[in-house]
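Hi support team,

I've been running sequence recovery on a batch of backbones for a student project. Most finish fine, but this one hangs at about 90% for roughly twenty minutes before it completes. I'm not sure whether the input is malformed or the queue is just slow. I've pasted the structure tokens below so you can try to reproduce it. Let me know if you need the job ID as well.

Thanks,
M.K.
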């Protein structure tokens, strides 16, 4: 019997037509369906990068679990970081339905060959960073991910539905941390403003390069994996932030930001910084990967134990049959 990957490699005009018809009719492509090899590769690329982002994304906030200012804050932060682990697991599972193994994806990450979101290569020196991450990073994630709930690939779209529900709780908890700080002392307000100053521009970069420099967008939109372009989503995000910043009493660090007839006019984003971070030269790239590698090595005994347990169970089931 042929594997799904081998089947996908077989060129057939009928299969291509059936695939095109499903996409045109807004139907979902499922793992059992034939799909063009390039569609499969694009999904593996995007979903695995997304999964890695969730897993690496646990680190900046994990940094504050032991130092959260109250028991309640600690419990909330732990729950949030655990949610990110869960998101990573659904997404790895979704990618596995396309024929790549979890081991392969993990290896690509710890070898430094896989991309993950640029945003997680920045440090979290103060408690206000927890607020800024929730408000800005999870806020950007929601803008980007709500349309992905309608992604043409079934397992990805379905995973995104639950992820988005959890992200909206994350965003609110970040907003609430900032609101509490902004209602506190002058030092607390300064700390909140400083965190927003540091996270604002990197959060705009999360949406990816400008549309005219985004090599993957056109094809991904034609396949209905992406529903909106990087710049469209970035605009939507800025529009969401402006009234919320007003409620918070926080200034978005862009003196040029204003509504200009039909769009938000912003200062030029520093794309050199984005490319530096993507090339592994962001402030925290080295630490993030080093921690992920150490966790993988230290967890080897857990994986070995799980494999030994599964083998034992299989043997028992065989004996009982
Ligand atoms: N960072 O042609 P483009 C979370 C890459 S975690 C790094 O526009 P595409 C959370 C891009 O991969 C949620 N790389 O690509 C977790 C491509 O490189 P390759 C993270 C980036 O795929 C914990 C190249 O640049 N969200 O919420 O059409 C705590 C050209 O770009 C970035 C996702 O992963 C970047 N920012 O569009 C808190 C969303 N931007 O692969 C929160 C899922 C671009 O050709 N992904 N690149 O070598 C997507 O929606 C799309 O992949 C992107 C990029 C919009 C990011």
């Amino acid at each position: 019997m042929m594997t799904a990957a081998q089947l996908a490699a077989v060129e057939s005009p009928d299969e291509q037509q059936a695939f095109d018809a499903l996409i045109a009719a807004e139907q979902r492509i499922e793992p059992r369906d034939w799909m063009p090899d390039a569609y499969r590769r694009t999904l593996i690329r995007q979903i695995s990068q997304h999964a890695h982002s969730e897993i690496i994304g646990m680190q900046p906030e994990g940094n504050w679990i032991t130092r959260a200012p109250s028991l309640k804050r600690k419990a909330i932060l732990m729950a949030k970081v655990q949610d990110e682990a869960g998101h990573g697991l659904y997404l790895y599972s979704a990618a596995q339905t396309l024929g790549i193994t979890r081991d392969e994806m993990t290896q690509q990450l710890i070898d430094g060959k896989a991309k993950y979101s640029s945003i997680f290569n920045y440090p979290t020196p103060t408690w206000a960073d927890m607020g800024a991450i929730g408000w800005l990073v999870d806020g950007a994630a929601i803008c980007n991910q709500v349309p992905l709930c309608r992604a043409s690939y079934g397992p990805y779209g379905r995973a995104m539905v639950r992820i988005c529900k959890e992200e909206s709780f994350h965003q609110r908890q970040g907003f609430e941390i900032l609101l509490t700080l902004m209602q506190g002392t002058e030092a607390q307000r300064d700390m909140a403003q400083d965190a927003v100053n540091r996270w604002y521009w990197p959060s705009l970069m999360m949406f990816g390069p400008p549309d005219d420099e985004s090599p993957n967008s056109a094809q991904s939109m034609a396949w209905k994996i992406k529903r909106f372009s990087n710049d469209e989503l970035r605009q939507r995000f800025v529009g969401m932030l402006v009234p919320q910043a007003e409620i918070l009493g926080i200034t978005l660090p862009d003196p040029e930001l204003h509504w200009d007839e039909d769009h938000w006019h912003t200062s030029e984003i520093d794309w050199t910084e984005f490319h530096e971070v993507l090339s592994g030269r962001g402030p925290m790239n080295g630490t993030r990967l080093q921690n992920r590698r150490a966790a993988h090595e230290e967890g080897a005994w857990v994986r070995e134990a799980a494999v030994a347990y599964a083998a034992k169970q299989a043997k028992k089931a065989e004996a009982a049959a």
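--
Follow-up from support: It reproduced on our side and the slowdown came from queue contention, not your input. The chain has a mean pLDDT of 96. No action needed from you.
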